[in-house]
């Protein structure tokens, strides 16, 4: 096997971190590259390499080229295309890019994320038991989702494998017999995903993987079966190593406008952070004193910056870029960053000249702690739709070893 054991190609930074940290937790050194065109892509020999192509909002042809070029440049024993569990982005184009780069491979697609109540049944993605196309999960997207995954992937041909086969003991044979470039597997539990991974690894065919963090978790368990140190031990070691960063004031930038992300910002403020709510129109207009105001506040206190009011989906990109620009001076000096939303995280980190991150720990589901190797700062990332109102507060409490606002096991499982 090559020195680099595994490559994960992600279309979004927070999703890539969430998928990649599963390998770090299993004891595999895991690095996330923020720029897919980086020269480091050729020489990085981490056990697992996660590359953010930032392609979720790109036109299909551009996304296909990015995935193709990334997969061609990196030699790895296993290749995973990280897929959004809500199936957003140019999914068919990105899978075509994988096939362009690795002809003759079979893509095993399993997009379920059971921990977030996102499951695949009869080839249809479900959210909390409701078919995706009947939910509001794509409300901010330019078009509604397809009624099933095979339709969304057209013109790619798909072999659909139902739960009866996933759980029936003949999954490897079904994968081997597939005559299409993609095998789509139903899954409603982590055990289903584990069965899919073990069947794929046992296949006589060259396999590429496509799925969410649920699939990468199963793959990490299969590829690194040695028992890693416990999560509590790993977090304690991290805190000791990065004590200076943990003890300094944090800068939280909340770019997501989802209700749960806004509630998380309010909860951090209730625990003592300074909350700066900036109207979207002020951000886009580029009012000159915003960056200085944020820097002054962040230098002396925990600070949360969020967008005030609704954001027109058509203006999301401009608002995210403006938010990254006004927080860049403070982010460059901060030793602990909390970033919510993939576009926001990427923009802030790029503005602070962060090229890559070592993925370290997951104090909360979907909350990833990473380190910037160039500066030693800690970066906490989270997708905007994940968690409950206290998720970020609990993550900060875990890092600082202070009382948690609300223990997670006292809450009903959140609806992302």
TrEMBL record:
UniProt keyword ATP-binding, yes or no: yes
- GO molecular-function annotation terms? ATP binding; kinase activity
The Four-carbon acid sugar kinase N-terminal domain sits at 6-219
> Where do the Four-carbon acid sugar kinase nucleotide binding domain residues begin and end?
251-392
Which keywords does the record carry? ATP-binding, Carbohydrate metabolism, Kinase, Nucleotide-binding, Transferase
Task: Supply the InterPro entries for this chain.
Answer: 4-carb_acid_sugar_kinase_N, 4-carb_acid_sugar_kinase_N_sf, NBD_C, NBD_C_sf
**Superkingdom to which the source organism belongs:** Bacteria
- The answer on whether this UniProt entry bears the keyword Translocase reads no
Q: Which family does it belong to?
A: Belongs to the four-carbon acid sugar kinase family.
Please identify the protein, giving its name as recorded.
Answer: 4-hydroxythreonine-4-phosphate dehydrogenase
- Source species of the chain: Phytohabitans flavus
